[in-house]
Every structure is written in structure tokens, then in C-alpha cells.
Amino acid sequence: MEKENNSLKLLQFYADWCQPCQMMMPIIESIKSKGYPFLEVLQYNVDEEATLSLQYHVRSIPTLIVLKNNKELWRYTGPIRASEIEEVLLSVL
After folding, report:
1. Do 18 and 61 meet the contact criterion of CB atoms below 8 Å apart?
2. For residue 5, what is the DSSP state?
3. H/E segment holding residue 21
4. Do 11 and 62 meet the contact criterion of CB atoms below 8 Å apart?
5. Which of 44, 42, 50 is nearest to 14 (CA)?
6. Which of 3, 6, 53, 90 is the most buried (most CB within 10 A)?
7. How far is 51 from 40, CA to CA, in rounded Å?
8. Active site residue ranges
9. How far is the C-alpha of 3 from the C-alpha of 38, rounded, in Å?
10. pTM reported for the whole predicted model
């Protein structure tokens, strides 16, 4: 039996040339380093993953999307603090 219903995916869409995206990298790394058992963090460079960016309707970067059972529960565009992201993750679990 899968634990799918309690697992979340955090998608980060970024570009190497995007200054706010670069500001977000250590924040996302800090969340990844906590090793939440319910969380999978996926990072996508919009220049390399154009099709995926279109699929998720990413128009600005950095964009973060939280999925549960492949349904979008939360989306945020722009810089955001780690504590705010973690608050969202725990609230949608």
C-alpha cells in the first residue's frame, strides 16, 4: 500500500540567470536538508524544462508549487522565507 495520500511534492521552477531564483536556492536546500519523510523536492530549470513549465502554467519565476496526489494545492511566485514554505507544507498535509 502506497503512502501517496500523505506525501507532498514541492516543485521549484527557476533559471540560472534569475537573481530572485538564486536567492531561493539556499532556502530550498535548507528545506531539503531537513529530510521531511512526506516531502519530495523537485527543481526545474525553465530554460531546460520548457514543456513542463508550460504544463504547470509557470509564467514568472521563481515559482513554487505544492502537489498532493498530483493535485496543485498551493502556488507562490517570488521570494519567500523557508518558515513560510514549511508552514504551508504542514498545513496541507
Report:
1. yes
2. G
3. helix 19-33
4. no
5. 44
6. 53
7. 21
8. 18, 21
9. 9
10. 0.93
Residues in the chain: 93
Cβ density class 69-81: b for 16+ within 10 Å, e for less = eeeebbeeeeebe
Q: Can you read off the three cell numbers belonging to residue 2?
A: 502506497
Task: Tell me how far apart the alpha carbons of residues 4 and 34 are, in angstroms, rounded to a whole number.
Answer: 20
The 10s digit of each residue's pLDDT in 71-92 is: 999 999 999 999 999 999 999 9
Identify the helix (H) or strand (E) that includes residue 73.
strand 71-77
Cell 502506497 sits at which residue? 2
> Predicted confidence band at 26 (pLDDT cuts at 50, 70, 90)?
very high
Residue 3 pLDDT class (50, 70, 90 cuts): very low
∠ CA 46-35-70, nearest 5°, is: 50
